[in-house]
Amino acid sequence: MLDAVPLSPADLxxxxxxxxxxERYFVETVHARRSRPGNDLVSMLLSVExxxxxxxxxxxxxxxxLLFAAGHETTSNMIGDALITLHEHPDQLAFWRLxxxxxxxxxxMIRMP
Length: 113
Fold this sequence. Notes:
Blueprint: H1 9-35, H2 41-47, E1 49-50, E2 53-54, H3 57-88, H4 90-98, H5 106-111
Antiparallel strand pairs: 1-2
Helix pairs in contact: 1-3
C-alpha cells in the first residue's frame, strides 16, 4: 500500500511551517506594495481590474506563490540538466571552463535539449 504522505509527522510539520513562512512573506509583500506600488509583478497584480473587480489579497498571494514555485522548479531543473549535459560532453565542459572570464554558458544551456 502506498503512503499518501511519505513524510514523518515531524517532517510534514517542518514542510507546513516552511509553507506558512513563505505565505507570510508574500502577504507582507502584498501589504507593502499596496501602500507603496513599485515596478514589479505584485504591484501589477494589485492593479489588475476587470469589470470593476480587482484580485483579492488571497488571489494575489496564491498567484505569486505559484509563480515563485514554478520559477524555482524550472530554474533548478535547467541547472541540473545543464550540469548533466556538460558532463556528458566533456569538450564543452572544458570549453566553458576556459572561457569563464569572457563568456557564460547560461544562454547556450537554455538552447540545449
